[in-house]
Amino acid sequence: MPNKPDLDLSLYLVTDATSEILGDNDVCQVVEKACKGGVTIVQYRDKHADTGVLIKTASELHTVTQKYNVPLLINDRLDVCLAVGAEGVHIGQDDTPLEAARRILPPNAIIGVTASSVQEAEAAIQGGADYLGIGTMFATPTKKDTKSIIGTRGTQEILARCMTGTKHSVGCVAIGSINAANVQRVIHQSTADENRLSGVAVVSAIIAAADPQEAASELLQRIRSTAEKFYISTRPGVHPASGEVIFQQTPGIIEKHVSSSILSHNMTNTVVQNFAANVCLATGASPIMSLNGAEAPDLARLGGGLVINMGTATADTMSAYQAGVKAYNAAGNPVLLDPVGGGATSVRREAIRTLLRTGFYDVIKGNEGEIGAVMGASTVQQRGVDSGPSSSNAQQKAEMVKSLARRERCLVLMTGVTDYLSDGRRTVAISNGSKWLGKITGSGCALGSVVVSYLALHRADKFVAAIAGILHYELAAERAEQNPSCRGPGSFIPAFIDELYLLGQDIKSQDVRKLARLEFLE
Ligand SMILES: Nc1ncnc2c1ncn2[C@@H]1O[C@H](COP(=O)(O)OP(=O)(O)OP(=O)(O)O)[C@@H](O)[C@H]1O
Ligand SMILES: Cc1ncsc1CCO
């Protein structure tokens, strides 16, 4: 056995010998294709074959994996590992105990351990496991004896407590029904602060694929692009922009947006379609109001952002939203979720759960009732789409956005007389805007359409991008209110559209620092 290699757990392939998954393919040929596609580690698992067959197959597999410099681990069977000189083993909680395995195998053997709970994970780390296989992520047809389905929340809890990602800890891969469609959200939603998965383990997503090489290569590309999608501000050593820097950057970002024609794809409600499209145009974006899920993949590749606004959701639009978020996640372009009326009915609460399960979001935006509904702990009972009276103070609202931002790994924007925005690290209160925004329908929805195109345009720091979009919107609203033509909500609307456009033209001559009522909160 060579020295223990630096483990690259990015794409971890677990083999399967059953006819439902492997069909009549040869496992060595499938693994070879998968290695060509980029799998970084392979585990040979066959719970039923005789020892002789296991050793023969493991030996053949080892010849393949060595060719690609990929470590081969054997599931459960230390004897097979020793017999073929594989790089290590993976053991479950009911298999050979970790310390026994350590005694039996050579010192450089890789030993991975399955963990379904914080306790199991802590014990495995204490015992010197080289990595953890965390799961079961989702119910999986390849493993009938699934002890516990823990989902992304359970994985996040384990990662948070085990301090993965620090140099004192071990790598972690998630396992259980992970495939190309859900891999990005699995990585994104499992992350707890700096603690994140080192990769994912898959079985049928590669073994049962028509083309295992292509399946592996697509998975690896999605895994790597998701890793890059993490906020720059949370990367160690990168100092997030704050205060002065934001004021300095905002006019330039707004000016760039005004002449960008960046795509703002809206899967929005039937009430605000026209208003939101006009708001987008006035800010310099190019709107498309399309609820056709079938065209989402093409639109997702155009470099813009997507709004999913549940205002007039139906069963049909729900499937369009799901197609939309999947397409934009896959393309790596931003998605904003606006859970309109989320706190009003049980149907909407269920829709939120479905959408959070389907993909991941760069921004979750809503009024207090809606943000409460996403948190699963409503602070106000919504009467329809409006928020309802609030009993939370400023500090509680700031806490709400911050904790949801940390939980969902995204920006959270809670609108109202004062808006609260957080990326889980930085939180600001923005008190610009006009009272008339609260008296017209769709002002929150249209703000979402603007924020998403700012995110698509300014990729360096989503938090700064969102602030630029909010200020463009709210400073224009202030100017519209001051315009003599504005006598109430009706005449406010055309004045507002005008000012969105005009502010874009003269932003460079404005002192944003003076105009913005923006307070940084701890
Ligand atoms: N009284 C107010 N003063 C200043 N700005 C306001 C006021 N009320 C709302 N706004 C602004 O209006 C925008 C929309 O916020 P609001 O909370 O009303 O959204 P919403 O309830 O989701 O709206 P809708 O469902 O009609 O789209 C935000 O930019 C917010 O700051
Ligand atoms: C009034 C209304 N009803 C469903 S969506 C919507 C627009 C504001 O949210």
TrEMBL record:
This is Thiamine biosynthetic bifunctional enzyme. Pfam families: HK (PF02110), TMP-TENI (PF02581). Residues 11-206 form the Thiamine phosphate synthase/TenI domain. Keywords: ATP-binding, Kinase, Magnesium, Metal-binding, Nucleotide-binding, Thiamine biosynthesis, Transferase. Its cofactor is Mg(2+). The gene is THI6. It catalyses: 2-(2-carboxy-4-methylthiazol-5-yl)ethyl phosphate + 4-amino-2-methyl-5-(diphosphooxymethyl)pyrimidine + 2 H(+) = thiamine phosphate + CO2 + diphosphate; 2-[(2R,5Z)-2-carboxy-4-methylthiazol-5(2H)-ylidene]ethyl phosphate + 4-amino-2-methyl-5-(diphosphooxymethyl)pyrimidine + 2 H(+) = thiamine phosphate + CO2 + diphosphate; 4-methyl-5-(2-phosphooxyethyl)-thiazole + 4-amino-2-methyl-5-(diphosphooxymethyl)pyrimidine + H(+) = thiamine phosphate + diphosphate; 5-(2-hydroxyethyl)-4-methylthiazole + ATP = 4-methyl-5-(2-phosphooxyethyl)-thiazole + ADP + H(+). The keyword Transmembrane helix does not apply. InterPro entries: Aldolase_TIM, Hyethyz_kinase, Ribokinase-like, ThiamineP_synth_sf, ThiamineP_synth_TenI, TMP_synthase. SUPFAM superfamilies: Ribokinase-like (SSF53613), Thiamin phosphate synthase (SSF51391). Coiled coil: none annotated. Pathway: Cofactor biosynthesis; thiamine diphosphate biosynthesis; thiamine phosphate from 4-amino-2-methyl-5-diphosphomethylpyrimidine and 4-methyl-5-(2-phosphoethyl)-thiazole: step 1/1; Cofactor biosynthesis; thiamine diphosphate biosynthesis; 4-methyl-5-(2-phosphoethyl)-thiazole from 5-(2-hydroxyethyl)-4-methylthiazole: step 1/1.
